[in-house]
Each structure stands twice: as C-alpha cells, then as structure tokens.
Amino acid sequence: MRIALIFCAWLLCSAAVAVPNEPATLDRSTWPEQLNSPALFDVASRAEILTFAHALLASEALDDNALKQRLNLKVINIDEIDSLRRKLWLRLLANYNFAQQSCDQDASFCYYVDDMDSLREQAGKFEVADDSFYAAWAEPAREFHRRYLDEQLRMAALFPQISSEIGLFGDHEFNGDEMNDRLFMLTFDSGPTQSPGNTDWLTDYLRKQSISATFFVLGNSLQARLDKSSEAAVKALYQGQCVGVQGWEYRSHSHWQDWQASILRSLALVKQGVPQNYVPLFRPPYGQRRADSAGFFESQGVKVALWDIDSQDMAGGMTAEQSAQRVLSLMLLWRHGVIAFHDTQDKVRSALPWLLKATAQSGLGWADCAKPL
C-alpha cells in the first residue's frame, strides 16, 4: 500500500511539473548608487518593492489557463496561489512602510502609500522614465521581478503536493517572515566539506567578521569528517557558529520511508560531536517535508527551519556574483529574513564577501545564531 501511494504521488507530480526556468538574477551594477547609508538602502528597497508589486498586480489579470502556460505547468493549485498573493501584498505593504521612514532624507521612490489600496494604486502606475537617473536599472529590474515572482507562484501552484519553502505546515516551522526589519540570518546547507575545504574557509571567515551563522549538516558528511579527523577538530571547526541538521543524506524527506530515522540519527551525532554548537533545527533538503510531521518535530523539540531568500548557488548557470546579486536584490525587497547558501559550493567564497561589502554601511544586522528567533 505504501509503495502504491508513493507511486501515485509520483504520477501526480510528473503530470503537473515541467522544467522550471533558470533562477532570476539582477545585475546590481545597473543601480547607480552604492548602498552606503541606511537611507540609500531604503531608496533601493522602495524601488524593488514597487517593481515587484507592479509585477504581482499584473499577474492577477491572468486567468487559470494563462497562468498555467506562464508557469509551464499542467495543473495548478489556484487556492494556494491566491493565498500566496495575499501574503505577499501584506508583506510588501509592511516593508514599504518601513522603507518610507527615511523619505525626509531622500525622496526617491517615495509615493503616497498608507494602506493596501494606495499601495496597489501606486504599484499599478509605477514606471521609471527613460531619462531617469535609475533608467539603466528599470528594465533589468522588471525582468528580474517577473521571473522571481514566477518562481514563487510556481512553488505555490504545486503546494502542498510538492512541499517547499513557500508555505508553512504549522507553528513548528519558520521561514524568516517574522524577523525584525533589517535583520537577516545567514544559513549554510549540506556540509561539512572534507578538510581543508569550503566549510573551513567559511567558518574562519565568519569568525573574522564577528558574524555567526547556522550550518545545517548532513549526518553522513559529518560522520566522514569525524572519521578522518576528531571530535576536537570538528568542535574547533564550528567554534562560534551553530549547527543544525539536514538529515543523514541530501534527499527529500517528504516520501522517504526512513525520514524520521534520518533526522534522529543526525541529531544524535551532532549532539555528541558538537554539543555546544547544537541548535534544535532541521533544514529539509529541497524544502520538502511531510505535512503531517508536526507531532514528530514537537516530540523532539525541533523546529523546521526554512528560508525566504534563496541564493540559488547550486544552479549550474549561476555565477558566484550573480548569486550574491540575487541575494542582495531580495534583501532589498524583503528587508529581513533567512538567507540560504551552501558551504559545499565554491561560489560562497566569492559571494559572501561581495554581499557583506555591498551592505557594510546599510544599517543591517546579522542575527546571532544562538538566539531563538
């Protein structure tokens, strides 16, 4: 019976899913100003919010068939799409209200917005003139936000049959939505690498920057690292950082019969190997987990840690700089949240320093990984 159910689920997904487009990225060199003050961060933030809101409003004019064609899907969950749109509008309104608090310092992209109706009105008529100081940014930004919106709508269209970071299954999960304005959480998946490797470089770099992050480790990778070194070496590796789990192997935990064993085995290894760094968090590979798993996670005192800013650093066609630029664009749009990188990817050695340099004077904060959100 279990095999039959899994096979039916596979058939449903296969019928619904076609190949997604390449992840969206935006060349930040088209933006004419450095983000070297909180006010200039807000200027860029207002511009990204209005551009995304314009794309979101335009998408609402599409009927179901047009939306299927645009998302390259045969079947869509329109209720989830509508639910996502409502959530996006609420967050855009809150974010624009934060971003316009510095309009007395720089009025660029400051428009009358005090409620949802006025935000939708401004989004509908938003455009950047051809002779504007920001003209070179406008068209690339429109394309970026249309493609990024499609990424979000596509995940919603498939949810919950294919689970992802787009939606929560309960209070035992979080994705960064409730964080304070200008506060971001750095996370890294799929490590550790073997020594010497990206994980070694990254943890050392973060310590030098006085920043902490959460590393979601794979049990088999951590075990391999312990086997080739020692517990003392692994403790030194993660000094000042936090360690959660991603399961024993990088595999979807939504239809895996042994998903609970995968998590429990990894939790036990982390608690034994790096007890001072352990945080009770599980990061599901691909964002995929079971909708009925709340009881299990609550019994273990573990939360499901999703994300709302995806670097897409595992995408084959994405360069390190494009990944960093994508993250920065989404930081400007969402103004707070959980950023997902992979310490198994060489790109992180260039992407993270670029990102920290670009935001160093923007008035942002990096969350302490050891403090509950």
UniProtKB/TrEMBL annotation:
Signal peptide: 1-18
Coiled-coil blocks: none
Keyword Signal: yes
Segments forming domain NodB homology: 182-369
Pfam family, one: Polysacc_deac_1
Superkingdom of this protein's organism: Bacteria
Alphabetically ordered keywords of this record: Hydrolase, Metal-binding, Signal
PANTHER family documented for this protein: CHITIN DEACETYLASE 1-RELATED, GLYCOSYL TRANSFERASE-RELATED
Stated name of the protein: Polysaccharide deacetylase
